Amino acid sequence: MISQFTLYGMFALYTVASIGLFTYGVNCYWLLAIFLRNKRREVIYDRRHLRQFYASGGMERLPIVTTQLPIFNEGNVIERLIESVCAMEYPAGRHEIQVLDDSTDGSDLTAHVLVEKMRALGHDITLIHRTNRKDFKAGALNEGMDIAKGEYIAIFDADFVPPADYLLRTVPFLAMDEGIGLVQARWGHLNSQESSLTLAQSIGIDGHFVIEQSARSWGRLFMNFNGTAGVWRKNAISSSGGWQGDTLTEDMDLSYRAQLHGWRMKFAYDVVVPAELPSDINAFKSQQFRWAKGSIQTAMKLLPEVMASNEKWPVKLQSILHTTHYMIHPLMLITALLALPLLYWFPFKIGTAMFSGLCVLILISSLAPSILYLTAQKVSRKNWKSRILSLPTLMALGVGVAFNNTRAVFSALSGQKGTFVRTPKAGDKTKFVYRTKFPVAAAMEMALAAYCFFGFVRYTNAHKFLVGPFLGLYAVGFFVVSCMSLMHYARKQMLIHSGSVVLREA
Q: Per-residue pLDDT tens for 128-168?
């Protein structure tokens, strides 16, 4: 039998986790309110100023820009990337391209051939191949910046395909305002219709960019560079300490340091750069692990400095919620694990009025992410009505990765630095498949699914409908992610054994 001290300790932990989830849910409404209040004015302002810039001879005033392409074992997409970047429109002689290739699988030879081909066509493009991965992507960017010609630095990850007018629609904002350190564009999607997984991801990413990034920029809150599809002022990078490799999210790290040094970040709402979404859930989980761990590492590193700064309280509060956002996953896991023992042993005594109030609060906070995603689709997509049918898939996915991301959070809290693990992409036609380990975490996710389903049944039978539905959602989420992890691993093994692709080491 569990002691009273342990039981009340479990209840206290459950309560704290529930309050945490409620707080992150309410934050969605805060960002949504900022977005809706400012969208029309900010978008019109940007469009007007961009027209005025070129009407006043802005084309002649555009400075040299260096575009950096950090690459690591990207044989499937490197050709598409380099060709799209070389096709970008910009005044002759003012666009330098650096291919920063740390590849270890031989794909740097492909990059070399492509770079030589583009140089022969008149492009100012060079290949920088490092023989080590010191500081990972941050180290590659630093090495390239040391010899960059440009006053501004544009950055694209390997799976992005920038539109031809990308630089012409972003660089002017830096040229017009010397206080802006970064212009971040919105992510689009090359393969959102490929599967239910990619469609769900695209809705989640739209929510982040359309609503959250817009709100943080327009609300004068701290926002982050998303690692790609952005243009930095070179001086903003160097004056803020440069790229640093002590976190797995060097983009968020630099963004916060730059804003603490007085630089402002601008979100270019109208500029959309399509990218490839992970079509394999194990690759998606690896990406989520890196983002979750890196965000918490950045929070531990920089939140004390943010709190000690002279920034206003909304900036400080939003910085906490922003950098610690992935804490929702351990909080979800705590509520899932503690719900069943509390049902059996905790003497719940709650009046009708309090119960009704709790139901309303939980409903409001639980619906917040879905309302944010729905709004993002409605304001940015003509086919939003058909796309929102995938919201349940997104909800299941968000719950199902809780175990994976909780591991990432605790890895960061324990002080483990970690290795930057790339997210492999297939490109237009898969040529190479990289070896991956068997997804052993799927067994734990399946066990959690069974546990949550049992809890759902017990709560339902006990006529306790405040917690039961959440356990049902958790059960579905863990089950779906576990099954997909095993199925996608098996699919890759079949592809490898078929001999239709080349197997390479990651």
A: 998 888 888 999 999 999 999 999 999 999 999 999 999 99
Q: Report the pLDDT value the prediction gives residue 503, as an integer from 0 to 100.
A: 47
Residue among 376, 372, 393, 392 nearest 384 (CA): 376
CB atoms < 10 A from the CB of 48, how many? 10
Report the catalytic residues.
102, 251
- For residue 490, what are the CA distances in angstroms to 448, 483, 485, 487? 22, 11, 9, 5
Structure tokens at 132: 């080590």
pTM across the whole model: 0.92
- φ, ψ dihedrals at 152, nearest 5°: -120, 150
Cβ(474)–Cβ(452) under 8 Å?
yes
Tokens standing for 64?
């040299």
- Alpha-carbon distances of 256 from 248, 249, 296, 325, 341, rounded to whole Å: 14, 11, 13, 15, 41
Secondary structure (DSSP) of 200-260: HHHHHHHIIIIIIIHHHHHTT------SSSEEEEHHHHHHTT----SSS-HHHHHHHHHHH
CA 409 to chain centre: 15
Nearest CA among 159, 184, 140 for reference residue 46 = 184
- CB-based contact 481:401 (threshold 8 Å): yes
Contact 376, 206 (CB under 8 A): yes
User: What is residue 327's DSSP assignment?
Assistant: G
CA trace torsion 275, 282, 290, 139 (10° rounding)? -60
Q: Enumerate the domain spans of the chain.
A: 62-324
Q: Is 3.30.420.10 the CATH classification of the domain at 62-324? A: no
Q: What is the pLDDT of residues 444-497, one digit of tens each?
A: 999 999 999 999 998 888 877 677 788 899 999 999 999 999 999 888 877 777
Query: Which residues 6+ apart lie within 8 Å of 283 measured at CB?
Result: 423, 424, 436
What sections of 107-233 are H helices per DSSP? 107-120, 136-146, 166-176, 196-206, 214-218
pLDDT tens sequence across 62-114: 999 999 999 988 878 899 999 999 999 999 999 999 999 988 887 788 889 99
188 touches 156 (CB < 8 A): no
The residues pairing with 495 across neighbouring beta strands, listed in sequence order, are none
